[in-house]
Structure formats: C-alpha cells, structure tokens
C-alpha cells in the first residue's frame, strides 16, 4: 500500500464522514461535523495501518477492526450519559458506531460499498426522521415552566420525563431570585403528551405552565 493510496482513503473518509456529520450538525446533535469526520478518519487510518504493518494478515486485521468497534462504544456512551435524567443520544451513539464501521470499510479499500453504506446512513437519519413525524403521529410540543427554584423540582421533572418515555430535544434553564424558568421541547404522540401533562400538573413546585 502506497502513501498515495492511504491519502486517498483518508480524503474519502473526510468526505463521507463529513457528509454524515453535516446531517448531525444541522440536527443540533452533540456529535456533529468534526466528531464524525475524526471517527471516520481515525478508524480508516487504523485499518490502513494494519494493512501496512501486518502485510495482509486477515486474522490480525479482524482483531484490530473489532477493537475499533469496541473502543467507539466509550464515545457513544458519553453522548448518552450527558443527557442527565432522560435517555437521549441513542441515535447519535448508533451513528458514531456506524461511522466507525464506515471508516473500517474505507480502510480495507471497499470504496463502492463505503459510498453505498454512507447513503444508507444518511437516508436513515433524514428520511426515517420524517417518517416518524408523519406516520407515527408524533408532534413537537414546547413547554414553558415556572418552577420553585430548587434542585428537587428539576430532578422530579427529569424523573417524570424518564418514567413517561419523554425525550427532550431542547432543555434550557434560567434562574431568577426565587424561581426558575424552564423551556423544553419534545416529540411525542398525543396520548403520551396528555399523560405527561397531567402528571406534570400534579407535581409540587409548578408555579406556571404554558404549552405551545
């Protein structure tokens, strides 16, 4: 494998990883443009390096690929943990795992498969998101809350969302002297939103609630 071949693989990894990262960036996800590029380029380089060092030893290359996929799980786990109270980031974690696999495909020199794989990932992220909204009857709800300024109220709010299976797309908090203003939004079917609404009104510490 020549330096030119490795360079072309890395450039293709930048292009395809960046295409997926661009979709994640426009969707305002924590792992966006540069993250997806770096993961794709990194796994491509590892696979290309195994070819340079191991001289086509298939068993060792397979072990290296398995190590990359296992290692990427730590990054994916980080995108989930930072949600603090709601299970968010599963799609982002799965995307990172897929992008790492994409890099391995590029690293082994299967370029057409890599392009097809990228197209499938992007279509899944874009088309199926619209499918969820239209055919699974999910609407986007915006809540504006005025709460007593206490950690317990926020913890209870997150726990309630987790219990009802609500995944916040946006969550902002602004503290005043004696209260806190919370703006949040989430997609959900009408029945689930109604249940969340009823449970929310039953909580202590809710001073005001507006829904859009």
Main sheet properties: 4 strands, antiparallel
Distance between the termini: 58 Å
Count of spatially separate domains: 2
Overall pLDDT metric: 76
Q: Taking strands numbered 1, 2, ... along the chain, how are they ordered across the largest sheet?
A: 2-3-1-4
Ranges where pLDDT stays below 50 over 5 or more residues in a row are 82-86
How many β-strands, per DSSP?
4
Oligomer: single chain
Outline type: elongated
Please state roughly what percent of the residues sit in beta strands, choosing from under 5%, 5-15%, 15-25%, 25-35%, 35-45% or over 45%.
15-25%
Rg over alpha carbons: 22 Å
Write down the secondary-structure element order. Answer: HHHHHEHEEHE
Task: Report the structural category.
Answer: alpha+beta
Summarize the amount of helix as a percent range: 55-70%
Count of helical stretches:
7
How would you characterize this protein structure?
The protein is α+β, with helices and mostly antiparallel strands and 212 residues long. It is built from seven helices and four strands; from the N terminus they run αααααβαββαβ. The protein has a four-stranded antiparallel sheet with strand order 2-3-1-4. It is elongated, with a radius of gyration of 22 Å.
